[in-house]
Amino acid sequence: MNIKHKILGVVALSLLPLSLSAQSEMEAFRLGSPHEPVGSARYAALSGAMGAVGSDVASLVRNPAGISLFRGNNRLSLTLGGGFGTDRGVWYGTSTSQDMKGKFLFEEFSYQAGTNRASRGPVSFAFSIRNAGRFDRELHASAVLPQSANFSSLADFSAARTNNARYDNLRSPNVDKYFEKSYITTTAAFKNDYVPWMSILGAGAGWIDIDNGSRSYRSAYMYSTAPDGTPYPQPSIGLPDKADLVLREKGNITDYDIALGFEANDALHFGAALTLSSLDYEMASYYHEAFRGNNYLKLQNTKSVSGFGGSVGFGLLYEPVEGLRLGASLYTPTFYSMKMDFQAGSLGRYNNKALEVATPKSAANSYALRGNWRFGLSGAYFIGRHGFISADYDYTSGSLRLSNSTYDEYDGSEIGFEEDNARLKTNFGGVHTVRLGAEAMLSNRIALRAGYRYSSSPVKNARLKGDMASTEVLVSGSAVHYTLPDSQNSFSLGAGFRITPSLSLDLAYVYSDAKARTFAFPYVNDYGSYLNASDADIRAGKVKPDELVGMQAIKETNQRHKAVATLSIRF
């Protein structure tokens, strides 16, 4: 590591080959963060507060020991759901909303064989296929930007990324030539690991231009004269007047569970579950800035990710006194193998000249992602045969990690992801989730249920909180927008009906409200003014980069309404 790396540390490291990859800190955070499974209608009606209630296969995601509480021979269950919602965004005071159309969705299929120590022994078995979370989201945001210069343009961000990449490689032989405009605007630059793709897209579309004297790039829209001193036909355009961001995401995680439960005695139960997870994610985004005089810049991105991984869960339940049941559970991270493909294109119009550039048709690559650990505590109190109240607490660790192909700590698998993983640890922490549930038996055949869930925000770094970020994050290649979730709440109601001794129907309604902040592009430190700095100046601390604050966050509210139905048969 050269002297600038030692002095600048995280700031300098964040700007080179790490910024070129299609996967990054924010990509790992988006795909690896905890999602909320729906499970059965009973599980949904109780907002998932089933860790100490058990019996239902859906309770595997809270405590695997719960399946040993199912009495009987066999049970098959099928859960279907449907829902709709609204995604709202507020950006610089302008409010927009997008309705999510209703969908008919598969939620869970399960089979279980219950315990019966007298005839079948103390071991129970369960298998399930479950929707473990969906990415569906659509954001349409527009902003009329203030006249004051307390924000920056995507063109400024593109220029800063270029300057920082050049600055970080000044001491590398034969690298500086890659940052000349004559090279950075060629298609060959896309294959060069030193050059960020945002540099190529910005220069090729005319968003940024180079000052041949200082060798630094600047937003072309801010120039009043060309870098060679020739006056432009029009005065400086300045910052944009309007901005628009359209973001569409879809996809889901499907879990395949195989679990065993063991009833040691009437009071003590154990369980273990192996979960295989399949992940599919698609994203399309469009960003636009409008400047005076019919000038503009545009950036388009598409991305698809598929992954497959596995995890293991363990749990125990203990009944210290009659009616009171306590539980604890532990789930390992999901270890994913990921494949990704993405494309991007940029357009720009400046002083009656329009330019366009696109990335290669395929930028497929692969990487590995390790998810979070999860720990759970649960309790339930049963009021005879009249019903119960339950409470669950979950802690999901902030331990996401990216690697190349293996998780061996000593084989160099994290090379190229050191800074992403360091930032994941610095910027994000654990998520605390509290679930409350209650069930009342109106008769032997009818039950009423209700539940509530609260999840805290995983954002730990204070400089990423609020409307304006004041620290850098690592984004995926040319997909520079990113979203930070805030707290989440959901409320649920439901009912269960025993139609016959072997056939039952459960219904649930779930309303969820999630807050988030989406940034069109990150805050960044621009080292363009120090391309000629000496090592002595760096050691003396004379390098103080320009801070480009980006734009205000889009304040999102994602509301969802969902109805769930489960049909179960015992045989």
Your description of this structure?
The chain is 11% helix and 48% strand. By secondary structure, the protein is mainly beta. It has a 14-stranded antiparallel barrel. The protein has a two-stranded antiparallel ribbon with strand order 5-6. Strand 19 and strand 20 form a beta hairpin. It is elongated and about 85 Å long. It starts with a helix and ends with a strand. Mean pLDDT is 89; it is low at 1-22 and 225-229.
Question: What would you say about this model in short?
Answer:
The protein is mainly beta.
Q: Separation of termini? A: 67 Å
- Judged by helices, strands and strand pairing, the structural class is mainly beta
How many strands appear in the DSSP assignment?
23
Give the CA-based shape: elongated
Spatial sequence of strands, sheet with the most strands: 1-2-3-7-8-9-10-14-15-17-18-19-20-23
Total number of helices? 9
Subunit organisation of the chains: single chain
Strand content: over 45%
Approximately how much helix is present in the residues?
10-25%
Q: Which residues form runs of ≥5 with pLDDT under 50?
A: 1-22, 225-229
Indicate the mean pLDDT: 89
Computed CA radius of gyration, to the nearest angstrom: 27 Å
Largest sheet: 14 strands, antiparallel, barrel
What order do the helices and strands come in, and which of them pair?
Elements: H1 3-8, H2 10-13, H3 25-32, H4 41-45, E1 74-91, E2 94-113, E3 123-134, E4 137-144, H5 154-168, H6 181-184, H7 197-204, E5 208-210, E6 217-219, E7 242-263, E8 268-291, E9 295-321, E10 324-331, E11 335-350, E12 353-358, E13 365-370, E14 374-382, E15 387-396, E16 401-403, H8 418-427, E17 431-441, E18 446-455, E19 482-498, E20 503-519, E21 524-526, H9 535-539, E22 546-548, E23 554-570
Antiparallel strand pairs: 1-2, 1-23, 2-3, 3-7, 4-7, 5-6, 7-8, 8-9, 9-10, 9-11, 10-14, 11-12, 11-13, 13-16, 14-15, 15-17, 17-18, 18-19, 19-20, 20-23, 21-22
